[in-house]
Amino acid sequence: MTSPVDLTLAEASAAIAARRLSPVEYLDALLARIAERDPELNAFIRLTEEEARAAARAAEAAIAAGGPRSPLHGIPVGLKDIIDLAGHPTTCHSRQCLDRVAAADARVVALLRDAGAVFPGKLATHEFAIGGPAFDGPFPPARNPWNRLHHPGGSSSGSGAAVAARMVPAALGTDTGGSVRHPASHCGIVGLKPSYGLVSRRGVFPLAFSLDHVGPMTRTVEDNAILLNAIAGPDAADRGSAGREAEDYTRLLEGGARGLRVGFVRHFHERDDPAEPRVAAALEEAVRTLEREGAILTDVTLPPLGDFAAVNRAILNSEAAAIHERWLRERPEGYANITLRRLLPGMFLSATDLVQAQRRRAVLTAAVEAAFAEVDILLTASSMDPPCRIDDPEAVERTYPRQARTVFNVTGHPAITLMCGLAEPENLPLSVQLAGRRFGEAALYGAARAYERAAPWQGRAPF
Amino acid sequence: MSDATPRERALIAAAGLDATFDRFPAEVLGALRATEAARGRLVRPQDPAEEPATVFRP
Predict the structure, then answer these.
(1) Could you give the ipTM of this predicted complex?
(2) CA-CA 20 to 30 A from A165: which of A44, A88, A152, A237?
(3) Which residues of B17-29 are buried (b: 16+ CB within 10 A; e: fewer)?
(4) Looking at A13, A22, A94, A155, which residue is catalytic?
């Protein structure tokens, strides 16, 4: 019999609805997995076992009385520790915030709670979603479940590690320059950065207001769409909210790839920032897989990757410095050293640097919009390298910016990453990124599901 | 430790980071120099009147 921890979110949800799986039994199995694996992975920085057990018992009783109120009823969901969970500290993995207890749930947590989700704990992050992996912070950095000597990606590192290691079937991360998709890529799971403004950031500690997104991290595309269904929607209290009503993002999942027009942005990883050969080969194989499924592939040229990276960096650093200005001046010792080094540059950017970046952002966004007049989906690299050693700071600094994820933080389009290979002999996941039209998450999930179904990677586990 | 030039010390002071510099000179100076080096990588518009995306609204 399959262990409950190996069930996907959709499978667990169906088992709970059919009364074949109790939410309490499910939570206990996951907590046992956490107890077994987390001492070597450091995905969780705080467990909320008692509260979670109470919620699971309540879910069990409610489902027995009237059936589940949503596909997430009784489903444990992990939370990156920059997301507020009422009554618990949101530490941002920082000494600056160890006692910062959340008075209320973040909007996304409130929506998940309404849907019946259970919260077993708070997950490790790069400090303030920017500084990591750090060995001088208040908690150790999360490790990659596929090979604990390697980087799990960040900044939603605990979310990636916990989902990949089957400690939770789903987690929330945040993504300002790729921080959902980076750990999803390195941990061999599915991560979505939704369209800018689709998911509320209220109650989520900001990194950069105009680039921040909350996104779902799961083991399958279907699970990801189920989680987005619960958290998408307008929020008048989030100034970035697009005011867009949620849709059923699962509705196009099984549409297949026949006739899908896919634009392959080859120059990102061939010319602009050449990928490691195993990454390039895995991307070519992903393209061939989609072609075999009936997709129509064409090469697409966008502005150079470096333009997107420079804009992302100028805006992110400026906005982050505005948030951290006081602490950078008055208590810099409260940061891990890598965080301090990543936040300080924003203090030296000028007003004209920021305006020039915003001008260039409009041009870059228009270029990506124009591409979507010709294709339905863009396919790009995610990381240009397999996960590096976590204890090699030079490799971390070298590989950290070698990626194509910031493109879609700059433009606001939705983008999803999923596993497309395994780097041997290290046994580390490789991944591909698909991007879709603004608010085209349902179609994007359909394309991702078509690839997932045809490729041999779904269900691959790190151990 | 400080090999900051007078101009760099002035920029650090203007950023309000004198006290931070006293405690973390390498980090502050490294950030200043990295930012100055990165400034050249940001593409400027040809048209000086081009409107920026001052608030990002999709």
Answers:
(1) 0.94
(2) A88
(3) beebbeebeebbb
(4) A155
Give residue A266's identity as a one-letter amino acid code.
Answer: R
Q: Name chain A contacts of B43, Cβ cutoff 8 Å.
A: 307, 310, 360
**Is A210 annotated as catalytic?**
no
Q: Is A86 touching B (CB cutoff 8 A)?
A: no
The rounded radius of gyration (Å) of the Cα atoms in chain B is 16
Q: Tell me if B20 and A332 make a contact (CB, 8 A cut-off).
A: yes
3-class state of residue A200 by DSSP: coil
Q: Is A208 on the interface with B (CB under 8 A)?
A: no
Cβ distance B53 to A359 less than 8 Å, yes or no, reads yes
Please indicate whether residue A155 is annotated as part of the active site.
Answer: yes
pLDDT digits (tens, 9 = 90+) for B18-34: 999 999 999 999 999 99
pLDDT in tens, A279-320: 999 999 999 999 999 999 999 999 999 999 999 999 999 999
Residues A426-437, mean pLDDT to the nearest whole number = 97
For residue range A114-126, list pLDDT tens digits in order.
999 999 999 999 9
Beta-carbon-side half-sphere exposure of residue A237 (alpha carbons within 13 Å): 8
CA–CA separation, A356 and B38 (whole Å): 13
Chain A environment of B9 (Cβ under 8 Å): none
Q: pLDDT grade, residue B55 (50/70/90)?
A: low
Put simply, the answer to whether B42 touches A356 (Cβ < 8 Å) is yes
Encoded tokens for A242: 């697009």
Average pLDDT across chain B, whole number: 88
**Dihedral angle computed from the Cα positions of residues A430, A258, A267 and A419, in that order, rounded to the nearest 10 degrees:** -10
Of the candidates A13, A80, A94, A185, the residue annotated as catalytic is A80
Which helix or strand (DSSP H or E) is residue A415 part of?
Answer: strand A415-423
pTM comes to 0.98
**Distance in angstroms (rounded) separating the CA atoms of residues A456 and A165:** 19
- Side chain identity at residue A374, one-letter code: E
Nearest to residue A327, comparing CAs of A339, A338, A315, A316?
Answer: A339
